[in-house]
Enamine deaminase RidA (YjgF/YER057c/UK114 family)
Amino acid sequence: MTSEITRINPAQLHATPGYHHITVVEAGRTAFLAGQCPLDPSGELVGPGDLDAQIDQVAANAVAALNAVGARPEHVVRSVIYVVSDDAAVLGAVWWRLTESVIGPAFTTASTLLGVARLGFSGQLVEVDLTAALPG
């Protein structure tokens, strides 16, 4: 059985830069991915101080995690992006780099972008938390 995913932007809500306000999933299995960090396979932080390098690693890690459960970015139904910054321009740049990355379709769904003071690993600048409706 394949999960049916419907994405909705009610007319009464503001326009979005590509995500949808609501994502509805009809039936099926769900995968909750741990926050994907900018760590390489050996557990080392990629690109200390380099936000773009960290975004690219997070995107690659997210694709690997999705692939491990037979999913693709199109199957993501919820995303939360954490960025160590309170600068709106930096947050916007992270959003656009992610939406143009290999996991870009994941961000057409219900999404939240947060500026935070700190993340789990020293020097970590970005993390992405995804939930996916698994294909049948």
